[in-house]
Each structure stands twice: as C-alpha cells, then as structure tokens.
Amino acid sequence: CPQTEEEWMRVSTTFERTTRFPSCLGAACARHIELRKASKADSDYLNERRRPSVLLTAVVDSNYEFLVVDTCPSGHLSEDNPPNRILERKLRTTKLPCQLNSNQLPYVFVADESFKLQENFMVPFRAVNDKGGEANKLFNRQLVRANQRAAKTLAIMAWRFGVLQTPVNLEAKKVQTIVKACCYLHNFFKRESAYYIDSNMEAVIKADMAPIVWGPNTTVIPHINNCDSDPQY
Predict the structure, then answer these.
(1) Which of 60, 125, 161, 220 has CB 3.0 to 4.6 Å from 136, enough for a Cys bridge?
(2) What is the pTM of this model?
(3) Beta partners for 32?
C-alpha cells in the first residue's frame, strides 16, 4: 500500500493516463467469497442473503494490482458500515494527497453502487433524469470504465485461484487468510511471471466489462449496468 502523498500521486497519474479519469487514487471493490457452511459461532459471517461468506474489500491500481486489501465477516457490512468505512480504517496509516488549489479536482476513489457516495468515494448516479441526464450518463460511463480495473483484477485472480470460484469448505477465519494470500500472490505473479497473464487474461483486460468468474453459487455484490451497451455511446 502506498504510504506517502508522492506514492499516491504516482498512482493517480498512471490511473489518469490509462483510464482518463483524473485525480483517481484507485478503483475500490467489495465481493463476497461464499463459505460452504458455517458453525453457530460464525453467525457474523452471514450476509444479507443469510448465506455464510467472507467479505473482501480492496483498492486496485491501473496495473491490475491490489493496493489495499481487507477481509472480514460479511455480517459486518451494513447500512451504517458500508465498504467505504472498512477501507477508510485500512487507510488511516497512510497519508493521502490533498487538493492543492481550487482549480484541481479533489483526489477520490472510484467505486460501484455497493459503496456510499462520499467526498473521497465517487459512485455512479443512481438515476439519470432529464435535467443533466446526458452529462450524468457520460459521467457514469467514465466512472464504470475506471472501476472496471477492480472488476477485471478480481476476475483474473479468481481465474488463477480456482478456490475463489466455488463455496469454500473451510473455517471462516482460514478463508480470510486464504483470500488475503491470493491477493498477495496475485500481485507477486503479476510482477514476476511472464506467464501469469495468458491469452485468456489478455482478453479479460481488453474487454469492455469483466466477466463474473466467481462461480454460480458465489454472491457478487451488484454494480451499475454497462453504459457501453447503450446505443448512444
């Protein structure tokens, strides 16, 4: 995880160059990794669908690598404790860059609709009305494209680490450790192995939208519809 303002600003510069989204510190995401079963002591791991799962929240850079990773019981996710709060607690030890002047856009993270709109978390407009509709639609399109960095990173990792594609038959705390290990190994192989990103992964990166490869039984937090499918764009 970047620790200084300069490191975060380098992330932002690369993100703007590759996604055309300015002053972006990364793409935030939240996903449920489903457990095959949970004991009575693991009631905190029941999500909103009453299925046992571990919640992965993360921030990804433009190079499809994890910057921030956290795993916790999915029962900790609520209206009062959205994924934003979980990531903000992880970011307390870092120094995020500040807006230098009134002409510069503030630094933000881009996220999907599972996150709450905050000063430092940008999410899509939930409804596009007649007033400002085209501008809002264009903003949603650019934000979704930028946030696809996170969705594609998750797709690549799940493709390479098949344990994430189906409900995991292990204790919940062990699954938390496994998910973190997968994220760290993803970064390591992404940097060190020329074979980690094969032709299938290249296709995922070039696609407009990331495929859902978390398995038919795994809960995926929904995000906004693909704006690229709109015939006007």
Answers:
(1) 125
(2) 0.83
(3) 55
Helical residues (DSSP H) of the chain, grouped into ranges: 5-19, 83-90, 133-160, 172-192, 199-206
Phi, psi of 117 (to 5 degrees): -70, 125
What is the pLDDT, as a whole number, of residue 23?
Answer: 92
Q: Three-class SS of residue 161? A: coil
Single-letter code of the amino acid located at 122? M
> What is the spatial distance between Cα 29 and Cα 223, in angstroms, rounded to a whole number?
10
Instruction: Report the alpha-carbon distance of residue 162 to residue 6 in Å, rounded.
Output: 36
Q: For residue 116, give Cα distances in angstroms to 29, 77, 124, 167.
A: 12, 12, 10, 27
Beta carbons within 8 Å of 191's beta carbon, 6+ residues apart: 65
| ∠ Cα 211 213 219 (to 5°) | 110
Single-letter amino acid code for the residue at 137? K
Q: Which residue has the tokens 């990166």?
A: 205
Q: Low-confidence residues of the chain, pLDDT below 70? A: 40-41, 102, 127-132, 208-233
Vertex 31, ends 139 and 56: CA angle to 5°? 115
